[in-house]
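// run 5 | inverse folding | seed 20
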């Protein structure tokens, strides 16, 4: 079908400067439907800047980002009306923040956190919203009896799982993730990664995930883009890049991090 012919997202010559400082420089890549792309690199390499520009949370200095809408039409995101962009962010996209408090409403119930997104796509039936919210809580391993609790009463891992449920309930086609396992204990991280991997595969989601953790990239992504000082140093299939890195910088990164 025409709607699935091209890439879901095309980034071309994307540059972001903060005054004289380079955030990211002349970046181009495509993301295909159902593909998981990991953006990796050390702190300060420009990963978050790039993610925020692509997701239109931050204005780029130059370049274009084209997104294939649900009707199959490619649209330049930087030329979209603000209201339309916000609608996209609330429905067809998800954004999972490192700190769940940035992606949740901490003072409304877990059920309302999930239900709100359903209302944004036009659901009005209270019973159905609550049923879908309960179902999603169980998919992210939160017991139904916690549905009326506020996320501030949840542990860090539960909050992150709730943030994921809130993002995925509208069946988005593209989810941005910024260090989704970043602030968690190692054992909690492992469980969350497992859960994420299952959901991404079940839902056929396209994901752009920023992480400095190559083990996270290894587990979740199909393709990796390695960044340094705002530039893309190397890109390729995840296993190839991690098992046989070509660029000296990637070799260094892989040997320093994956060696145990
Ligand atoms: N608001 C800002 N104002 C000025 N410079 C910024 C700003 N945000 C980021 N930078 C600079 O842009 C460059 C890229 O930063 P960015 O936060 O995108 O990197 P990162 O790879 O995401 O790092 P981290 O993993 O630490 O978040 C850095 O040199 C940083 O100092």
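// decoded
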């Amino acid at each position: 079908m025409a709607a699935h012919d091209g890439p879901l997202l095309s980034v071309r010559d994307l540059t972001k400067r903060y005054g004289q400082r380079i955030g990211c420089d002349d970046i181009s890549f495509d993301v295909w439907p159902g593909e998981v792309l990991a953006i990796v690199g050390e702190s300060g390499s420009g990963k978050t800047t790039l993610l925020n520009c692509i997701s239109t949370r931050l204005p780029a200095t130059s370049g274009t980002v084209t997104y294939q809408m649900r009707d199959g039409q490619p649209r330049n995101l930087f030329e979209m009306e603000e209201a339309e962009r916000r609608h996209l962010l609330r429905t067809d996209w998800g954004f999972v923040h490192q700190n769940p408090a940035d992606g949740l409403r901490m003072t409304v119930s877990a059920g309302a956190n999930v239900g709100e997104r359903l209302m944004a796509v036009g659901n009005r039936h209270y019973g159905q919203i609550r049923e879908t919210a309960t179902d999603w809580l169980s998919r992210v391993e939160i017991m139904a009896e916690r549905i009326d609790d506020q996320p501030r009463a949840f542990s860090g891992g539960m909050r992150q799982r709730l943030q994921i449920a809130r993002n995925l309930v509208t069946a988005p086609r593209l989810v941005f993730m910024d260090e989704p396992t970043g602030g968690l204990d190692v054992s909690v991280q492992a469980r969350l990664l497992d859960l994420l991997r299952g959901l991404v595969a079940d839902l056929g989601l396209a994901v752009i995930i920023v992480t400095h953790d190559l083990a996270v990239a290894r587990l979740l992504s199909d393709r990796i883009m390695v960044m340094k000082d705002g530039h893309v140093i190397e890109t390729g299939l995840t296993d190839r890049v991690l098992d046989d890195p070509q660029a000296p910088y990637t070799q260094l990164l892989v040997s320093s991090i994956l060696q145990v």
